[in-house]
Amino acid sequence: MLTIMHLAHSRSDRLIWLFEELGLEFGRDYEVQTFERNPETQRAPTEMKALHPFAKAPMLRDGDRVLIESGAIFEYMMARHGDAGLVPKSSDPDWPDYIQWLHFAEGSAMLPILLDHFQAAGLAGPPGESPLAAMAKSGMEQLFAYIESVLCERTFLAGERFTAADVMMGWVVEMIDFKGELGPYPSMQRYLKAIHARPAHQRAQRRAAQSAAAGTG
Ligand SMILES: N[C@@H](CCC(=O)N[C@@H](CS)C(=O)NCC(=O)O)C(=O)O
Question: Does the CB atom of residue 57 touch ligand 1 within 6 A?
């Protein structure tokens, strides 16, 4: 049994989504263990440190191994447990874009979004007024324009078929939507609708909600 260590409304949502896209069955193949954030700091609770010193979501337990880092967990899962056709072969013309977007999600896309989150929370002085706020804003504009320019030309980020890179990046687009920033970007809006229509995404949302309600999976 695989265990996803989950924080509500976090990057571990997309690991549950990946598992559902891979056809793994909740309760039979995997469970979800939900942790509560520290209500004051919003950080992961100390119990997570007992599982891994880095203590961030997602974590995956597979036998006696506990892994961290979304992209690495994605690659691990699909190499060890099968990719259900979500990974183009390295000879496929879509593969270079696939591998780029798989890593772009955490390597580049999240930085301006997080900078903006922290400046908006007042951690860099009055929101909207610090040099960090300006940096976050221009980084987000660059990011949103880039994603939009690619999605104007193709259905999914690595081509015409949905891949695991769309699970990594789909969650990023959900974050952009959560921030209320999708208005000027019709192709990202279309992409978000396509993602939300996926049965595996809908199942994953139910699993995450059930596990949070139960305190654990
Ligand atoms: N790049 C890492 C980021 C992990 C991360 O920062 N997770 C957040 C949840 S979205 C977290 O655990 N925050 C709580 C904390 O930092 O204490 C990944 O994708 O796995």
Answer: yes
